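Structure, all two chains, one model.
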Amino acid sequence: MFPPLQDLYRIGPEIVLCVFGMLIMLIDPFVPAGRKRSMGWLGFAGTLVALASLRWAFLNRGSAYSDLLRMDTFSLFVHGIVISVAAIAILGSFDYLDNEKIQRGEYYALLLFATAGMGILAGANELVTAFVGLEMSSISTYILAGFRRTELKSNESSMKYFLLGSFATAFFLYGIALTYGATRSTRFDVISNALSSHAAGALLILGLGLIFVGLGFKVVAAPFQIYTPDVYEGAPTPVTAVLASGPKAAAFAVMLRIFYTAFGSTSHIWFWAIWVSAVLTMCIGNFAALVQSNVKRLLAYSSIAHAGYILVAFAAASEIGVAAVLFYLASYAAMTLGAFLIVAYVGGTGERRLDIADYAGLGTSQPWIAACFSLFLLSLLGLPATAGFLGKFYAFSAALDQRLVWLVVIAAINSVIGAYYYLKVIVSMYFWEPNKDWTPSPLHAPMFIALLLTAAGTIYLGILPDRVMQWALASARSLH
Amino acid sequence: MDGALVQNQSYVLTVLTFFPLFGTFALLLLKGDDHVWIRRLTLITSIIEFILSLFLLRGFDLGNGSYQFEEFHNWIPSLQIHYHMGIDGISLFLVLLTTFLTPLAVLCSWKSIQTHVKEFFAMLLVLEMGMVGVFCSLDLFLFFLFWEVMLIPMYFLIGIWGHGRKIYAALKFILYTMLGSILMLVAILWLYRVAHTFDLPAIQFMLSHGQLSLPWSTELLMFLAFMLAFAIKVPLFPLHTWLPDAHTEAPTAGSVILAGVLLKMGTYGMLRFCLPLFPEAAHRAAPVIAVLAIIGIVYAALVAMIQHDLKRLVAYTSVSHLGFVVLGIFVFNPTAMEGAIYQMLNHGVSTGVLFLVCGMLYDRRHTYEIKEFGGLAKPMPILCAFFLFACLSSLALPMLNGFVGEFMILIGVFDAHHFAWATWAATGAILSAVYLLWAYQRVALEKITVEKNAALPDASTRERVILIVASVVILFMGIFSPLFTHRMDATTNALLQQMRATASYEARARQSHSLTPRVAARQQNAHELAMRSVSLERRAQP
């Protein structure tokens, strides 16, 4: 039976992404080696069309395929984040791939498939669909992490990510099985109904715990964050940029749906798990980042710390809390994407310049790059008038609303600890003498546009956040 | 008192706050090696800014104790954040102080800054924007925004153009301040949770009309969180360790602004937030804070005495003098409070001049070591005369500005029957004479011990202009102090009045909580109704 047209609209973005991905795979063999860049532009066009198709998806919002997927404001919001991330990452990848001599079509195709997976995660209304989305995005990113195949570190990254990721997905799957056993359904609304009539049994709690393990791995929540620095460091930097923003947003989205919608009535059970995990995540991320001298690794640890701040908003388990998580995801995506792209740019061929010392004097030699990087770092630090501050502000405010005073105090102190290592990079850029032996490579238009977009997003969300906040709030409301 | 009903929107403060930013953008258009025009443009911008700020004096309503020149717009409706600016008798002069010191800071960096000139002056103007913004904002969010944003230019000023261990000093400065302010942020958010607004006048209104009362423990914790941020900034005694480093390593302009304006933000914050929002906590904590302030006065004076680095010595005088200000604030007496505000201005100007002189000496000798100087009055009589003048102003010689402030504070403390405090604080005034005059003696009098010093040039025209302008202001403020204090009267009285009103409502609310639960519940209802009416009222306006 052919599915109704509306259902197709509702998964329009995923269809577009997959079609473009497959197109790239098909055309790629016929494109001469020197002109692989065109595949990237095709991929970029794919993301733009996907963004446009969101409009029709949203006009026909509702649930698709017997409630397996839902296109609602929430899904729209997360789709917006992950597809934009993919688009900007493609722009930022061109020069990098050329420099590394790995300019290939499948890179872009994989990126599109991964994004489609994330889209499915964002819209999943059912555990098995969520699993499919998770696998789709994970497997593509496993390959992307190892894309510099002649590099040892990249291989290590891919292998670690793959092995640990498979374990995590297995846990997730086991959790689904147990939940199904306890509630006889994998659909979120049915689970929620089942929970409202029966108390949660041991089976269900175990299931939820295993689901948390699986998703905690994807959102890099402690104690499942161990892999992060190695994987992020070894992966090609533009891929790291995606890993830190896109899959995280999608995994948080599905986690919100599962914990807040399906298991909302048992929030007293999972609340403490989230609380402890949030504290651990922030502390581990920040303290480990303090001693890093490699900027890429430093940002990897900072990404752990930021997952912790998001968990603070998550622990609030309220409508505002959900909105705060979404807003944080959007602002974090903008600033971390920008920061990693600059690391990719400064890193140069073979990613040899990743040390903080390599950034010395960047303020003099490349004032605009340094200013941009400072903006992203200050935003990650949480300076007012940047996206990062508003994200934290909203998250803390949501948590305080639920009287989580201690959690907020811990988070606040953590953010000051974080200030130290972000400032360390700025110190190097502006206060140290420049390196003489480095001639910066020219900044080409695609990278320039990517940086411009992320910087504009960081400032926009920091100064005029209201529109996005309203949208996030509407998304949170649409979860019911 | 209700700032919620802003009748006439005034754009003066917005223009005043963001005008330096225009200067910054204009600077960015200039070529980096066009040093002359970069300096001129910055000077022109800062002078226009000063002239603009003088218009505030003209329009300022003397008898009005509430906020003036108010401006109110919706900004982030989903979080009830508004763009709300306004000034009163406290912030009026602090704005003027800022706009007055900035041109001086520009002038004193004329020659001494030779690297990254454009960036330096751009930072200075951004800093000015932040400072004016802090003093003008009446929304807690907006205040916090300026408060934090301002740190960044200061951080760069110290870190790039400083001396010696500048990176260490810059990091110490910014981390200390951030640590203090982050807990204030938590307190601000908590206040939002109970008051449902970030608007300061609205919260004040609710507190003083019994529409909002904070439980005692909450009030104390919030007070402490705010106080920590401000005490670090002031800095109050055990939290002062960042200050000598930051001051010593900063470039002259940085020190002038740091001592002249940034430290005042701490005491300003106490007056603006700690007292009116948490009066009972302030009253109960006052003995502790006053004692810390007095320890700071005496301790910093003693430490200043043994410094061998001139700039470090001046830095410690700041700790000592700001102790007076804090003491004046926390005796809750109108005279002492006015004295404290006045002393904030005095300290800004006279310590500013002291730092300027330090900078001029440094430009000539590239050292701050006192033993490297000696007998300077012979080669440069004019510079040393102004140095002495600033010392005398700082040690509170009658007729000069410092005297008025310290005298008012001490009288106020006596009036409030804190004789021991006044006595101890007065010793600080004596000690300040010791360390300043002794420092002057070692630098300017005695014999010339270092050969090089005999040939040092005296103050140039540019330096004379700076010193004359500042000295005239010192003298003016010493003689015509009523011109200033009259403009503060209404505000200080209103502030103290509001503290009393809030405290009495809180006392009543607490009594009622110990009554039967039903009465308490009814009061809770009334409270919610009242809050709703306030929010409606706020929504009704354009």
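Residues 42 and 412 of chain B are 41 Å apart (CA to CA).
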